[in-house]
Amino acid sequence: MKDINELFEFLPHRYPFLLVDRVTDLTPGEFIRGYKNVTINENFFNGHFPGHPIMPGVLQIEAMAQLSGVLAFESKGLKPADGSTYYLGGMDKTRFKRPVVPGDQLVMESRILADRRGLMKFDCQAYVDGQMTCTSQILCMEQKLS
Predict the structure, then answer these.
(1) Predicted model pTM
(2) Measured between alpha carbons, how far is 131 from 138 in angstroms, rounded to an integer?
(3) Which residues lie closer than 8 Å to 74 by C-beta, 6 or more apart?
(4) 83 within 8 A of 144, measured Cβ to Cβ
(5) What single string gives the DSSP state of each residue in 117-140?
(6) Domains, the chain, with CATH or none
(7) CA angle (14 as vertex; 21, 11 as ends), nearest 5
(8) Is 48 labeled as catalytic in the residue annotation?
(9) Which one of 47, 55, 58, 127 has the largest count of C-beta atoms within 10 Å of its C-beta?
(10) Of the listed 8, 12, 31, 48, which one is catalytic?
């Protein structure tokens, strides 16, 4: 549904910190699904861990937060060019189930749980080959840019 060039309109992130490659399903106000292709060329694999590379859990959370940000913008009918952005505000009920390694495709899903006065709460999951890798409830805050 959205390729990398379209994602540039919704996310301020760029290499090496853009962690969403494509959106494959989107229902504004409700749900989004997308993925990150995890390759050995990722900078974080140089130190996490040499000889046994795994994607850091915090980056899985960041990837789900970025995907949730796209859902937030689409749900509001906005883009960062309109003068606002979403920041990661918190996370609850976060659990990691299995490692993510080079060659994996990290498929992520996010659903809106709440939307109140500039705060949005999302229920997020990530999978590799149908097996859950991570789950978290993510809070994003809208911030007007000056």
Answers:
(1) 0.96
(2) 20
(3) 10, 26, 28, 32
(4) yes
(5) TTEEEEEEEEEETTEEEEEEEEEE
(6) 4-144 (3.10.129.10)
(7) 70
(8) yes
(9) 55
(10) 48
